[in-house]
Design goal:
The protein is of the alpha/beta class. Helix content is about 30%, strand content about 20%. The strands form two sheets. An eight-stranded mixed sheet has the order 5-4-3-2-1-12-13-14, sandwiched between helices. Strands 8-7-6-9-11-10 form a six-stranded mixed sheet.
Amino acid sequence: MTRPGLPKLIATDLDGTLVRSDDTVSAYTHEVLDRVRAAGIPVVGATGRGPRLTELTRNDIRAADFLVMAGGGRVVDQSDPDGPLVLRDERLAGQMLARLLTDLEAAVGPLTVMVEASDEPDAPLWGDYHPSWPYQDRFEARSRQECLSCDVIKAFARTADHHVDELLAVARQIVPPELAALTQAGLGFVEISPPGVDKSTGLSVVAERLGVDPAEVLVFGDQPNDLPMFGWAGWARVAVANAHPAVRSAADEVTLRNDDDGVAVYLDRLLSR
């Protein structure tokens, strides 16, 4: 439920929420976020994007004091005068991922699998080619054995026989949360992260560093990977109009679509009231 006054911290998802369908962020949105910071409210970009996309992320949310990336597995303090400071960096062991994939394939059949293993700028994902993946320029075909030979930041899996929400439900029945965290972010793939990694635990790192209670945090999102932070934040949970039905159901309020600068319109009204 929305509280009176202003929140002490604002976090927003990027793709599908702050970023428009043409992969741009409007000048209006940047201006409103600058006003939020000028009002003394720290801004957090909370995204499924991995650290290999840090520069793209910084450009999309230039006002961010903190970045919660890889769905919560990487947390960066950008406000430190000595330069960006990594506050959290979680990885999933390749051997554990191999075990989970074997169990999942036994239940649902062959999977298309990609892994995010490198945090080098613009590093590609590795794995099985699939034409639906929207970022083929950042993909490199590699064998399953090679993909699982190291610890990974995150893995992506899909099957032709299941809708992603159905596959996610099956995966959660098979994979216990103490072994891996599972979600989906609207890309058609189930995302497999280290245990305990989600946007709420990433934001908790930021909140603890700033001394902010979750009840004082406002969040925006559009996909199921935003649900943990919707359950964690208490000032208000706001979905964009184009959000997944589960996110709309969990929201206190619904703002305009990402293509209509819904986050900025909401914040503009909040600062003006």
